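Supplementary notes (optional reading)

For those who missed the lab, this is the record we used. Protein: Glycosyl transferase. Length: 291 residues.
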Amino acid sequence: MKKKKISKASKAFYITLSYLSPRLNTKLLFLKKFGRFPDLKDPKTLNEKILKLKLETYGRDPLVRQCADKYCVREYIDNCGLEHCLNKLIAVYDTPEEIEWDKLPEQFAMKWNFGCGYNIICQSKKELDIPATVEKLRKWGKEPFWAYFSELQYRKIEKKIIVEEYIGGSDGSLPEDYKFYCFHGKAYCVMVCAGREEGWPKFYFFDRDFKLMRINRDSKNAPEGFALPRPAGLEEAFQTADRLSEGFPFVRVDLYLTEKGVRFGEMTFTPAAALDNKRLPETDLLFGSMM
């Protein structure tokens, strides 16, 4: 998942405002995105309901914070009986300077645990610029990720660098990720990205039978009869998302379907910081009604 972009001119303002008033910061960000203030007293849409949870619940909920932490979530997955979906953990570090590069395998995935987009995918350690990578990790580690959009579930996470097994294909390709939209322990649909390698990514929604759901712009504009090949392991992936989302009014569960089976990606409680204006208004209301 890519980090949400924010201009340099706005960054300091929103960070400062997050520390002073996460609620005001959230309202101003929503106004900038949608041209109106969010209704946080009587929210109707998915965006608004997530914002209310973010401000009033997520910062105080230890389970949400655990599941938002890309390291601590592993214990939650293990407790759910889904340890077989966990990618193999190779190492954990507190700082970039502690990384023992000579002990790492030729291929691996490395990431900070406290936000989105802080990832290093190494397909060949021989070709990896280690000093540049250390500097990048150091820069990322200083960022107050939670404060950009007042995502309070990230605020108190103890920062760690985790190294996991590389799960790319034998041909060097990266696995496709499947994003499951889950409500009260049931994965309602899955979002799939197509055309990324060709440079024209489009996002499509499918139901549990992998039939196209025309509930976002790309899906709505798809030609009549549009379909993608049903991926192997899809039913297991839906069941995995069901189990992981139990007890949460909403969470997006990201999974990989690899040559070795279903692998866990992350659990996201505030997709697009709950500022998603690419979702159709009627879909935002539909999803909101399901919470």
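If you only remember one thing from this example: The chain has a mean pLDDT of 94.
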